Structures are given as structure tokens and as C-alpha cells.
Amino acid sequence: MTKKTLLAIVLLFSGLALATSVVAADNLADRHAQDGLECTHCHVEKVRSKAPKMDTCLKCHGGSYEQLGRASAEKKPNPHYTHVGDKECTVCHKGHKEPEFFCNDCHKFRVQMPLAKGTTQGGQPLLTGANP
Ligand code: HEC
Ligand code: HEC
Ligand code: HEC
Ligand code: HEC
User: Fold this and answer.
1) What is the pLDDT of residues 77-118, one digit of tens each?
2) Could you tell me if the CB of 115 is within 6 A of ligand 1?
3) Residue 58 neighbours by CB distance under 10 Å
4) Which of 102, 105, 106, 121 to mutate to test the pocket of ligand 4 (most atoms within 8 A of CB)?
5) Quick one: pLDDT band at residue 122, thresholds 50, 70, 90?
6) Which residues lie closer than 8 Å to 15 by C-beta, 6 or more apart?
């Protein structure tokens, strides 16, 4: 084996090790980067500081709110089919920080948001505790 092939093999394996030891993402942007997505997949507008609109998210996630709601129909509560209508995704799913389950402004649902460090249970809810 030449030095060159040895080097190639070493590089190959260190690359694989890197790929499999990816640290768990703790925000949406990092999570999407893990799947090889670019910033511009979300930030389709020129101004990066703007939160992407739901149409952008829906292009990859279900196509419509209706479809998304069907996919999460067994969740209690279903976060994607509610009495508050079709909210912007980023009201709950934040791009670069902890997600926020905004329903808990009024309710006290125990919910595990994707990429949240733990379950969220509203601060001072106006409504009662149990998940319906
Ligand atoms: C999954 C979609 C998504 C991806 C991918 C993404 N962003 Fe964002 N970005 C957002 C959202 C949503 C906001 C609005 C603020 C928030 O929710 O954190 C935002 C806000 C920002 C802001 C405004 C400052 C701030 O944090 O509020 C900047 C700058 C930014 N993004 C840069 C980037 C860069 C650079 C990348 C690529 C490394 C990137 N974004 C990838 C969704 C995304
Ligand atoms: C270009 C396609 C694309 C766009 C645009 C996109 N996503 Fe994603 N998203 C993915 C892929 C791929 C994954 C990883 C595979 C999966 O979990 O389905 C993912 C994962 C997720 C997850 C699951 C994270 C987890 O770990 O469970 C959430 C939540 C999410 N995206 C929300 C959003 C939101 C909100 C937006 C808009 C701000 C958005 N995505 C924009 C493709 C996209
Ligand atoms: C009211 C808050 C809220 C809004 C608004 C919201 N989501 Fe979610 N989303 C959640 C919660 C909570 C979960 C976790 C559901 C579970 O697994 O229990 C979730 C899960 C997801 C997942 C992961 C899929 C899975 O089955 O785990 C994706 C992808 C996603 N949402 C995309 C979107 C997109 C795209 C939008 C906008 C069109 C959106 N969400 C709007 C709260 C929200
Ligand atoms: C501004 C306050 C407010 C917000 C925000 C809100 N709700 Fe409600 N919700 C109410 C009120 C008021 C009722 C009716 C009173 C009741 O039935 O206890 C209700 C009733 C419900 C019910 C009927 C079952 C029950 O508990 O009686 C569900 C399910 C529900 N909300 C889910 C959600 C979800 C999911 C979200 C986030 C997408 C949300 N709500 C956001 C105020 C709110």
C-alpha cells in the first residue's frame, strides 16, 4: 500500500467518523444543516433577518396545513389543526433558538416540541391542565 492510498483511507474513515458523530442539533437551522440544507432553503427572501413564511416551510413539509394537520392528527392536542387557524410556523418553530408552544399562553398542555430541551408546560395558564 502506498502512502497516498493509506492517507486516502485515513481521510475516508475520519470523514465517516465525523459524519456519524454529529452532535444533536438544538435549533431548526442546525437540524436542517445536518440534512445538507442551506440557509437559503429557508431564507428565500434577500433579507435574512426575516423569519421564513409558512409557504416556504410547507414546500418541504406536507404541502399544506391541511396535510400537516392530517399527519399529526393523533397528537393531543394536534398542533397543526386548531381553533386559532393556520398560524405562521415560526410562531412555534423558531429558527435559531428554543421553540415556543404558543398555545400555552392560554392552555397548559404538556408538549414536546421538536428540538426543545424538555417538555413545555405553560407558565400561568388561564385554562385547566389536562390534555383533551
Ligand atoms: C429551518 C429554517 C432556517 C434555516 C435553515 C436558517 N434559518 Fe435563519 N432564521 C429562521 C427563522 C425562523 C428566523 C427568525 C428568528 C428565529 O426564529 O430564530 C431566522 C432568523 C435569522 C436571522 C436574523 C437574526 C435572528 O437570529 O433573529 C439571521 C441573520 C439568520 N436567520 C441567518 C441564517 C443563516 C446564516 C443560516 C444558515 C447557516 C440560517 N439563518 C438558516 C429560519 C432558518
Ligand atoms: C428545503 C426543504 C425544507 C425547508 C424549506 C424546511 N424544511 Fe424542515 N426539514 C427538512 C428536512 C429534510 C428535515 C429533516 C428530515 C425530517 O425530520 O423530516 C426537516 C426537519 C424539520 C423538523 C423536524 C426536526 C426534528 O428534529 O424533529 C421541523 C420541526 C421542521 N423541519 C420545520 C420546518 C420549518 C418551520 C420550516 C420553515 C421555517 C422548515 N422546516 C423548512 C426540509 C425542509
Ligand atoms: C402551535 C404551534 C405550532 C405551529 C404554529 C406549527 N407547529 Fe409544527 N409542531 C408543533 C408541535 C408541538 C410539534 C410536535 C408534535 C409531536 O410530535 O407531538 C410539531 C411538529 C412538527 C414537525 C415534526 C413532525 C413530526 O411528526 O414530529 C414538523 C415537520 C412541523 N411541526 C412542521 C410545521 C410547519 C411546516 C408549520 C407551519 C406550516 C408548523 N409546524 C406549525 C407545533 C407547531
Ligand atoms: C388566546 C387564548 C388561547 C390560545 C392562544 C389558544 N387557545 Fe385553545 N382554547 C381557548 C379557549 C378560551 C377555549 C375554550 C374554553 C375551554 O373549552 O376550556 C379553548 C379550547 C381549546 C380546545 C378544546 C378542548 C378544551 O380544552 O376544552 C383545544 C383542543 C384547544 N383549545 C387547543 C389549542 C391549541 C392547540 C392552541 C395553539 C395552537 C390553542 N388552543 C391556543 C383559548 C386559547
Assistant:
1) 999 999 999 999 999 999 999 999 999 999 999 998 999 887
2) no
3) 16
4) 106
5) low
6) none
Helix, coil or strand: residue 67:
helix
Is 16 a residue whose pLDDT tops 50? Answer: no
Give residue 20's pLDDT band: very low, low, confident or very high (50, 70, 90): very low
Closest by alpha carbon to 108, among 119, 117, 118? 119
Write the secondary structure of 111-127 as one string of H (helix), E (strand) and C (coil): ECCCCCCCCECCCCCCC
Buried b / exposed e over 100-130, threshold 16 CB at 10 Å, is bbebbeebbbebebebbeeebebeeeeeeee
Q: What letter does residue 46 receive in the DSSP assignment?
A: S
4-18, 87-101, 117-131, range with greatest mean pLDDT: 87-101
Collect all residues with Cβ–Cβ distance below 8 Å to 48 and sequence separation of at least 6: 39
